[in-house]
Amino acid sequence: MAPGSILFSEGDEAEGVFEVVSGTLRLYKVLIDGRRQIIGFVSGGQLLGLAAQRQYLCTAEAVTPLTLRRYQRPAFERRIDEEPGLARRLLTAVSNELRMAQDQMVLLGRKSASEKVASFLLSLAAHEDGEHDDHVDLPMGRGDIADYLGLTVETVSRTFTRLKSDGLIALPTPASVEILDLEQLADLAAGVGDDDGWNRKGGRW
Description:
By secondary structure, the protein is an alpha+beta fold. It has 6 helices and 10 strands, in the order E-E-E-E-E-E-E-H-H-H-E-H-H-E-E-H. The strands form 3 sheets. It has a 4-stranded antiparallel β-sheet. A 3-stranded antiparallel β-sheet has the order 5-2-7. Helix 1 packs across helix 2, helix 3 crosses helix 6 and helix 4 packs across helix 5.
């Protein structure tokens, strides 16, 4: 699939389940006034389309060139019964979706712009074992990040610049981030700082 292609739309009949082989999709809902709220990003190895109500609950759109495996729902449901390993993987996928939904509720409702961007970068860098990569690819643009975090594009750009100026990250390209100070970035994401922008270790965010 080419970037910008719609895999499925909110409200469509959920006829298939998809596995992302390579590439990234954005998942979003359109509000009554036409605004877009991105609710997540899905990349290689992840499943999507697991709609319990037989309708897709959001729209899935390709961010980058995309390769997928499609499973017809009846065949996929039979595989769940026949393959214990698939059932465990499905449980993991559903658990991850629930965790992401809970994280985003906190992200949108309680965090400052700096805390939101720091949390977003850490989520992209995180591994299941708790380790983090130093390098983060950003296939999505600043507009996508803004719509996910509930910010303006200008605020996202200023926050990236601020994190770079304060030595927490480097920006080798617009589509990549190097995490230079994981501990400070994690502190910022957790809100360990004063209201005036100074962290409790004496450095500035």
